[in-house]
Inverse folding.
């Protein structure tokens, strides 16, 4: 009982210190912001500042109103910070109500000015202050991550879903309605064929083949790197990651130079080796797309596999061999189960971007091998049918979400 009580007190003291430090940082930040905005407002004529959207909106008010607003916020936050630092109960509640009021002020400001950047900033910092001052604050420490995740992930998804329920006007704009025609169109027939389902099937098939190829070549490479001395191991890992130092588009153009009719391969075959008189058709083929996808995403398979193999207890392999197991049984019964998390992680990391690949099939396939990524690009930039493009994107996102759920269900949690 004494140990449990001591542990509870230590935990409460630790949480209290986290709350105190976080509150100090957040309110010090807001003090700096109000002081800087007040300084800008008072020195516009002197320094000729370029007005921000917030300042343009405040310029519509009487000149004394922005000064009063900034001074009130500055003095209020200074008092709250002073009280919180001295663990005064009134300061915590005052800061909580002040932060909630600032959240409402940010929402009202957006309704008044349509300045979404300033409104999101006000709501973000005020929401973080309100969350950290809440009577039960431990959960609130995740507020910054939750806020930005909602802002940059959930909100765009919501917008995309609303657009997907709309219709395309004759001018290429979005008419906001509530219809599922775009989803039915994707799964329906066009000219007697399930055209869009065929494109989806092609994307899934290419992504699956690419994933299997990356696994087939990536596993031995990761195993070989993991068995090297530590000094050499780091060098080989660096070589695996070197392609990431160059833009993916540039690397794809490099493959075009290699595979085209007057490229490196055909030049060697025709002019050097004299094996053929006509150039081989290497570019703008499904094989070129396979090669580009394999080259681009192989490191995403090697790195997770290396992580699993590097942590593998090799004494288990030796024990299995001592018990009479051959190499096939050792791999099947020992090594493969222990490295399954790396296989699953690498497969997900390769499969998901391969399905939505756009640059590789467009450049190396010459727009002849259409995948879902190319379909999305055409709907948004060429046809300007944003509702149907949003519907296709939403369907693709659901498929990728299902793949991710399978990953977590089948072994991702053991990574």
């Amino acid at each position: 009982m004494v140990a449990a009580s001591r542990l509870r007190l230590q935990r409460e003291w630790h949480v209290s210190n986290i709350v105190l430090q976080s509150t100090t940082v957040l309110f010090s930040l807001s003090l700096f912001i109000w002081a800087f905005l007040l300084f800008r407002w008072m020195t516009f004529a002197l320094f000729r500042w370029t007005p921000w959207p917030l300042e343009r909106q405040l310029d519509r008010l009487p000149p004394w109103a922005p000064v009063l607003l900034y001074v009130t916020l500055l003095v209020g936050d200074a008092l709250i910070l002073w009280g919180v630092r001295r663990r005064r109960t009134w300061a915590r509640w005052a800061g909580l109500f002040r932060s909630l009021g600032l959240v409402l002020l940010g929402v009202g400001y957006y309704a008044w000015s349509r300045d979404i950047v300033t409104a999101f900033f006000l709501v973000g910092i005020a929401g973080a202050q309100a969350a950290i001052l809440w009577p039960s604050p431990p959960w609130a420490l995740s507020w910054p991550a939750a806020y930005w995740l909602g802002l940059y992930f959930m909100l765009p998804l919501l917008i995309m879903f609303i657009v997907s329920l709309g219709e395309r006007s004759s001018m290429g704009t979005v008419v906001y309605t509530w219809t599922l025609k775009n989803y039915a169109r994707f799964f329906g027939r066009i000219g007697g064929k399930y055209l869009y389902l065929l494109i989806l099937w092609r994307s899934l098939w290419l992504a699956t083949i690419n994933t299997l190829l990356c696994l087939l070549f990536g596993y031995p490479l990761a195993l070989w790197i993991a068995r090297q001395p530590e000094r050499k191991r780091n060098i080989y890992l660096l070589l695996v990651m070197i392609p990431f130092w160059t833009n993916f588009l540039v690397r794809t153009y490099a493959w075009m130079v290699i595979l085209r009719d007057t490229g490196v391969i055909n030049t060697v075959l025709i002019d050097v080796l004299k094996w053929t008189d006509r150039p081989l058709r290497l570019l703008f083929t499904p094989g070129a797309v396979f090669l580009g996808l394999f080259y681009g995403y192989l490191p995403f398979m090697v790195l997770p596999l290396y992580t699993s193999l590097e942590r593998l207890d090799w004494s288990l392999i030796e024990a299995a061999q001592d018990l009479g197991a051959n190499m096939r049984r050792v791999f099947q019964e020992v090594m493969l189960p222990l490295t399954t998390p790396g296989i699953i992680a690498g497969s997900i990391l390769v499969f998901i971007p391969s399905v939505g690949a756009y640059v590789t099939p467009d450049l190396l396939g010459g727009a002849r091998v259409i995948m879902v990524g190319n379909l999305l690009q055409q709907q948004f930039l060429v046809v300007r049918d944003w509702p149907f493009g949003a519907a296709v994107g939403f369907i693709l996102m659901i498929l990728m979400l299902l793949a991710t759920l399978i990953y977590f269900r089948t072994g991702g949690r053991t990574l």
Remarks:
- The CA atoms of residues 96 and 134 lie 7 Å apart.
- The first helix runs from residue 2 to 42.
